[in-house]
Specification:
By secondary structure, the protein is mainly β. The chain has two helices and five strands. It comes from Saccharothrix espanaensis (strain ATCC 51144 / DSM 44229 / JCM 9112 / NBRC 15066 / NRRL 15764).
């Protein structure tokens, strides 16, 4: 279930994360971050895209996220393939997670 634009990726990621597993949004061979502990946390992922820069078939995404009492800013790289946009590099701690409070 890839995205048709890079701007769709963050919301689609949150939707799949909240349902079970967003790993289908990654290119084959790409290494998704370790999400096991977060997927079982019973918290809802919320995302707010801050910036999406696209150059041809490559996009850089900066996305603010919140999961329970944790929040951070992810810095990701996506690539357009024959079936849509998928993550190639995912750095969920681009600016380091922090506690809300």
């Amino acid at each position: 279930m890839p995205a048709t634009t890079p701007e769709e990726l963050p919301a689609l990621f949150a939707k799949l994360f909240n349902q079970s597993d967003p790993s289908s949004l990654y290119e084959p061979g790409a290494r998704p971050p370790e999400l096991t502990g977060h997927l079982t946390a019973n918290a809802t992922m919320h995302v707010t895209p801050r910036k999406v820069l696209t150059n041809g078939d490559i996009a850089l995404l900066v996305v603010d996220w919140r999961l329970g009492d944790e929040r951070g800013t992810a810095v990701d790289v996506a690539r357009r393939g024959p079936d849509g946009w998928r993550y190639v590099i995912d750095n969920p701690s681009g600016t380091g997670p922090s506690r809300v409070g």
